[in-house]
Amino acid sequence: MVVDGASGRHSLGGGVVLVSPQGVTIEQAVTFHFPVTNNQAEYEAVIAGLRLAKELEIQDVEVFTDSMVVASQIRGEFEAREPTLARYLSKVRTIIGGFRSFSIQHVPREESMAADRLAKFGPRGGGTLTELFRPAIEEGEVMEVNRRSSWVDPLVTFLTTGELSEEVKDAKSFRHKAAHYLMLEGSLHRKMLSGLLARCVTEEEVPRILEEVHSGECGSHSGGRTLEARVIRQGYFWRTLRKDTAEFARRCQKCQVHAPLQLLPAQRLRSITASWPFAIWGMDLVGPFPPASGQRRFLLVMIDYFSKWLEIKPLAKVTSQVIRNFVWGEIICRHGLPQAIVTDNGPQFASEEFINFCTQLGIDLRFASVHHPRSNGQVEAANKVIVNLLKKKGSWVEQLPSVLWALRTTPNTATGETPFKLSHGCEAVLPVKFEVRSPRVAAAAEGSEAWRLENEEGLRLSLDMVEELREVAAIRQEEIKRRMARYFDKHIRVKQFAEGDLVLKKVDAAGRSAAVGKLNPSWEGPYIVEKALVNGGYYLQDAEGRTSSHTWNGDDLKRFYPPAAQAPILLAGPKARLWGKGWLLRYFVLSHFYDTPSSARPQVDPLRRLPSSWQV
Q: Which spans are transmembrane here (predicted)?
């Protein structure tokens, strides 16, 4: 935290710049409406910054100021002989006692320019404005005289005086309800059917009770129904007990980030449909394999979504240039320019070089959602078959052509035909037909002119009928996709998010599952949904305002609920969003929030709004 105070003819104020370990910055300008000296202005700025840190529940503070006098007095190196500065020093030390750790250092003016700008120019220099009308050392204690009315007041009045309050509308119903309550040692209690006497608590006491029972020293972070039963067994009751316990358990931060992973799909099955051969290709990398000749360890696999025709190439290095050359030589020059290529978010595919290559040729390069292989399921299924066959064959590079030939000449369940026939219009001649001669091979071996003419006529007829063959295959594929969708959609758990929603993301969705320990959170975030796509993909934005370059699927997201005791505020600035009060600061400013004991956290009034000077 960098602070600075200014006491001059044209500037009378202080500046506070609070920086979190993650680099999130909060700026606050303070204007003094009373005369101060330079040292007093520095003290006022320090006190304003400490109060800001205290309200944000920060436990560890390191202050930087360009005032040697103030820094030395707070560290105890200089004595504050001037009475006013002595009172300021006493005030600062009182506030410091509420922090877990505190330090203050003197820095050159050049390193506190941001705070100096706020102190001299106020809100014109950036940040938000707080106005002070009297010195911090003259503030007195404020006692709460009035208390908000509570649901227990009419019952207490009736049981103690026998009179009905003005807010009671139905006297008969109220008397029937009051029969379940009694006054004991000056407190209202409810007679529970289990035989317990539960003390009735007010709305102000509810947050503290829920936090202690749910996540206190003996808390087990239980669900809503269990939390409700535990509260009653502890001897407490209020009229919205069931609703409040369920809401509190749902909004608990630790319960949300450590919740079990959701395995059911979040939306209906959406299939990729190709209307003609070699229009849409799926592309993926497989490996690493055991090193072969030329240090080849990877396979680049591409499959046509219509005919299931495969193109495979073993690679030693996987670079954007290699991918580009393969697509040009093996796909475009052999099968024509494709309409689209579907791939994952690998750096070789998402590189600027490959994206520009596809853009120049008019190829629609489609990226699957991060950590969601089902988005490119055709090539993922082919990968599994290829790896399984290579395991049985042995030496994978030498056996790769035979594996590729086998897959091209095997009838596919979805189309009912072989990829070779859908591509070339006729079936391939396999070596087995020469070992065990078929009538077709025997006739070809004789080489008669009549057979040659008949064979040419048959080939032309096959080519004439290939259009119908492909139409039948397309209809068959669509029917199989419908059957798969009907089965798939029986097991979905619909999750839909709108722009501006807060979500958590699976930790292993970013490919970090190997580094995640047993006690680490299963979810990370929260993030804000920047853009929602119709296919179930979402662009996310983090606390720094950075939007993800690739989409995340709804299967890997779940809704985040800000703490229930935090009222919504609107953050100022170009990234203004509706967030829960203080939740952004808790997660992104306070890196140690989860380590703060519940007993050390100040009470939060559910109805109190965050002051406008603290909007960031």
A: none
